[in-house]
Amino acid sequence: MSEIKMIAPAVPNVPWQDKPEKPIAGAPIWRYTENPIINRNPIEGVARIFNSAVVPYEDGFVGVFRGEQTNGISFIYFGRSKDGINWEFEKDKIRFKDEQGNDFMPKYAYDPRLVKIDDTYYAIWCQDFYGASIGMAKTTDFKTWTRMECPFIPFNRNAVLFPRKINGMYKMLSRPSDSGHTPFGDIFISESPDLEYWGHHRHVMGRNGMWWESLKIGGGAAPIETSEGWLIFYHGVSGTCNGYVYSIGGAILDLEEPSKVLYRCENFLLTPEEWYEERGFVPNVCFPCATVHDPESGKIALYYGCADSYVSVAFCYFDEIVQYIKDHSDTDWNDTDLGKC
Amino acid sequence: MSEIKMIAPAVPNVPWQDKPEKPIAGAPIWRYTENPIINRNPIEGVARIFNSAVVPYEDGFVGVFRGEQTNGISFIYFGRSKDGINWEFEKDKIRFKDEQGNDFMPKYAYDPRLVKIDDTYYAIWCQDFYGASIGMAKTTDFKTWTRMECPFIPFNRNAVLFPRKINGMYKMLSRPSDSGHTPFGDIFISESPDLEYWGHHRHVMGRNGMWWESLKIGGGAAPIETSEGWLIFYHGVSGTCNGYVYSIGGAILDLEEPSKVLYRCENFLLTPEEWYEERGFVPNVCFPCATVHDPESGKIALYYGCADSYVSVAFCYFDEIVQYIKDHSDTDWNDTDLGKC
């Protein structure tokens, strides 16, 4: 076994397919051969599901799914799966309630993440708040969801909660944005004593000179705690003459001060190559949103949205991907410093 | 005396010049005949002072001033005045310290506001934080200034603190922005139990159909508490073929829920007309940043930046301006609702 340890609950049934026998040219991560796992028109009235997040739950998995309705408006849908590959969805969008139990729906909601902290599951998404901003809700049973205060003023996207408090504080990554297609963007981190009031904002890492993440970057899957630091899968965007290209990157953040980047892989881990990544409503998008991971076996299943049209999964061994990120790390002061204003 | 009451400490020496005898065509507010009160090259190495804020202090006045150095970089300077009209500046920019007393300067800082809450004075400005964002510091003696945490993630400008807590919470107006010249922008409000962590963000009011505030709006002077609600002087911007035009607007916010606008004047209160407003580094700018006001006499002296080159002052009677705002009020649901996400 590797010297590097993953610190997380055991998930012996992590979705998995063995590494292909033919050598991998780039990062040690490989796509599921049956991708995409969620195809078009998955629910009545929903044209596409993509950019969605899953967690282990009871003896299987549950998830929050960006479902784009046939009127073009996205909401969050709930799904269950025995194996993390084959999903069944509830027909109606998730009905968020306020603290008093009254319906409290955002106008639209997209790109959800889902994180368990202690005994509560938190969904974090992007929604309208007089512009793109972060919305949140919590549940303990996946039956009742309570809307929480929006953590930040607009404009913001791609918020990701850490799976535990650090030095007594909840921590959240996010990406200040504009309300359009945002041709810029760095990852920031904020902290909160109570998930209600937020502060101590710090810059984590910026877009950089590597073509595949030179336009903007944004948080992806919830950080995985390891003995080396917080392992993150994020997205990096290149602006081409024919539009944006979204690739998946990897980095490792300091355990105690996660605004400091310890390692940042100069190579993308995954970039659009397959038909379901290159073709769709928004071509050329690999958009990571969640992992299912097991410390015993070292297996990671990475869920990512494809071309704003599908959900796919890729696999890697935790120690191999950490080693690859370390071996190909290139950071600058924007990454490694505290990022204080 | 008017039925409308101003709730504020007495300032018997509020700077003042009587209303001119010839009728005023628009809002009942008139410019000081000796404007601008701060001219070019006011300090060695400082080309222009503008967009600055003052408060009564001891037997006179003090202020924080946006000084644009001859290298083009703005910092905050400190000044004192016996009469609020004639100012003496410290030669060096304000040296902000961290909690440990070490130098902690922003890269640049501009458009400061200054608000007293209880026995502490808070300066709030715009600065670099990987983009335009809000910076803060506090002092009790105007000798030592302690930098505080930046309240918000970028991008943001025009933050204004309320002069007291409301229902136990500090309240701050701000204007989510981009990092450029920001061709959009509405006023939001946020609250904090401790000035360190912020949340419960609400939309206050948006740019609207009136030409003079159709591009963006932003907080100006600190709100003045009145029996009718919080009186605010803000700026509204029109986008013309030859650039932005900044006028001064007025509104009254609900005392307990200041995200609700009670009255919003459809007419500007002041718009660039004089040479010092029309000519300068940025022509056509009237940019309100502070008031000095006295509940006994009802006098208000409004300080505003002119053309990013000068500071001027205008005067009004409190009850007349409130009545004018009420008589010419036009609000829509974006203004009058709670503004929750």
Task: Produce a short descriptive summary.
Two copies of one chain form a homodimer. Chain A is 5% helix and 45% strand.
What is the oligomeric state here? homodimer
Task: Report the C-alpha radius of gyration of chain A, rounded.
Answer: 18 Å
Helix and strand string of chain A, N-terminal first? EEEEEEEEEEEEEEEEEEEHEEEHH
Query: Helix- and strand-based class of chain A?
Result: mainly beta
Strand content of chain A: 35-45%
Spatial gap, N to C terminus of chain A: 41 Å
The most extensive interface, with participating residues per chain, is: A-B, 36 and 36 residues
Low-pLDDT segments, ≥5 res of chain A: none
Number of strands of chain A: 22
Approximate shape of chain A: globular
Count of helical stretches of chain A:
3
Largest sheet of chain A: 5 strands, mixed
Helix content, binned percent of chain A: under 10%
Mean of pLDDT of chain A:
97
- Strand arrangement in the largest pleated sheet of chain A: 6-10-9-8-7
